[in-house]
Amino acid sequence: MKNILALLIACGAVAACDQGRWIELPPLLMTCNDLEDKDMSAELKNPDKFSLGRGMLQGVCAQSGAGQFTGDTRCNKDVVEIRCKS
After folding, report:
1. DSSP assignment of the chain, as one string?
2. Burial class (CB in 10 A: 0-12, 13-18, 19+), 32
3. What per-residue confidence (pLDDT) applies to 47?
4. In this predicted model, what pLDDT tens digit does every residue of 45-86 receive, in sequence order?
5. How far apart are the first and last CA of the chain?
6. Are 21 and 83 in contact (CB under 8 A)?
7. What confidence tier does 7 reach under pLDDT thresholds 50, 70, 90?
8. Phi, psi torsion values for 65, nearest 5 degrees
9. Contact criterion met (CB below 8 Å) for 44 and 73
10. CA distance 31 to 17
11. Do 81 and 27 contact (CB within 8 A), yes or no?
């Protein structure tokens, strides 16, 4: 029983680490309307293509200490949030 409990705790810890961290962007950098632009959304999700937008968001993740920009974005209460992962 203890082995199963230890395994479940370890799996839970790994899953929690995998989720990353959502960082809120100031409206001067990006607004929820910007996320509706299909070209910009595609640009942000493509890690193989250089873009100023993706580079800017990578810088936000690095400066906050949250790791690398994953390409995930969302609008939460009229504020853009980006996902960063170590």
Report:
1. -HHHHHHHHHHHHHHHHHT-EEEEPPTTT--HHHHT-HHHHHHHH-TTS--HHHHHHHHHHHHHT--EEEEEEEEETTEEEEEEE-
2. middle
3. 86
4. 888 888 898 999 999 999 999 999 999 999 999 999 999 998
5. 32
6. yes
7. very low
8. 80, 15
9. yes
10. 28
11. no
Q: Edge-to-edge, what's the strand order for the sheet holding 21-24?
A: 21-24, 79-85, 68-76
Amino acid at site 19 = Q
Tokens of 22: 């959502």
As given in the structure block, the two tokens for residue 16 are: 């929690």
Q: Which are the contacts of 34, defined by CB distance < 8 A and separation ≥ 6?
A: 40, 80
